[in-house]
Amino acid sequence: MRIAQVSPLIESVPPRRYGGTERVVAYLTEELIEQGHDVTLFASGDSLTRARLVSPCARALRAGSGFHDPLPHLTLMLEQVLSEAYRFDVIHFHTECVHFPLSRRLRLPQLTTLHGRLDLPGLKGLYREFRDMPLVSISDDQREPLSWAHWLGTVHHGLPEALYPFHPEPGKYLAFLGRISPEKGVVQAIHIAEALGLPLRIAAKLGTPDRAYFEAEVEPLLRRGPGAEFIGEIGEDEKADFLGQAMALLFPIDWPEPFGLVMIEALACGTPVIAFRRGAVPEILKHGLTGFIVDDLDGAIRAGARLSCLDRYQCRLEFERRFSARRMAQDYVMLYQELLSHERPVEWGVAP
């Protein structure tokens, strides 16, 4: 099958550091090639891929200086996609809704994976207008605010099985990995670790919009003692040791998390997860097997005292069974085939 993958441009594919969507696009692209498909990747020019790479910009936008507006670069990329659309059996967009007006009128054989939250103001009107656009969710919970949209299916994220080695023995600290922001729960993670008397290592991206929150809410807790350590944003090559040597990953989120890629990264290392019951968490974790799903701080503290009950080998087995890149790519190929089996032949030009 001839497949186009269309990525956001904020980060390279894969990203050098933080970047969930571009990371998933990278894993999917490489696995589709491994399974024998002909893949073209539309992404920033500093992306690393075995696919044919088409780029509207030389570098990921976050890597450049003076980045403000991604729209000019996205517009250029859409022109590149449209000019080559005849090459592909299916075009897989990961760019939210920006392509919808063109996709509708050109009858592109396409689908769109939505990677973000869907409960935000204004989205209902947008997706009601574009109810004909074929969509894929990354969890069943993600699609609930727009349950009536044109969903082809849900495909959970997956990782290459060899990406993270299994760590059979737990380390002596708790881990927090992600982004510094109120909804990610870093303050709650510090409180949990303090109550358990365990060190906490915080590897997180700190962006400009969240710096005031960090200075007002997080830094004072870090200064209280040596228990919590902020080590900043880490790269892919550092994640395996960071997660694998942890006793557990803390994931005390306070928002409807659409998936939570870091949870399956931890499971790949054999590291269990203590997570708040929000968003997709109950779809990803199995309570009492791959971690503990809790409702509040007290529940998380009680769960932390029971970590020795969990088998790290079972965490790794669940990852291999449910969250491999191979399974993810196979799920998408089935959706591609289903889409094409119902698709009318492409007629170039504006639809009536």
Structure summarized in a few sentences:
The protein is α/β, with parallel strands linked by helices and 352 residues long. It contains 12 helices and 13 strands. The chain has 2 domains: 2-160 and 325-342, Glycogen Phosphorylase B (Rossmann fold), CATH 3.40.50.2000; 174-322, Glycogen Phosphorylase B (Rossmann fold, 3-Layer(aba) Sandwich).
Order of helices and strands: EHEEHEHEHEEEHEHEHEHEHEHHH
In the CATH scheme, the class of the largest domain would be Alpha Beta
Instruction: Please state the structural category.
Output: alpha/beta
Kindly state the percentage of residues in helix. 25-40%
CATH architecture of the largest domain: 3-Layer(aba) Sandwich
N- and C-termini, Cα separation:
29 Å
Mass-distribution shape: globular
Number of helices: 12
Largest sheet: 7 strands, parallel
Biggest β-sheet: strands ordered side by side in the sheet: 3-2-1-4-5-6-7
Number of strands: 13
Pfam families: Glyco_transf_4 (PF13439), Glycos_transf_1 (PF00534)
InterPro entries: Glyco_trans_1, Glyco_trans_4-like_N, Glycosyltransferase_grp1
Domain Glycosyl transferase family: 168-296
GO molecular function: glycosyltransferase activity
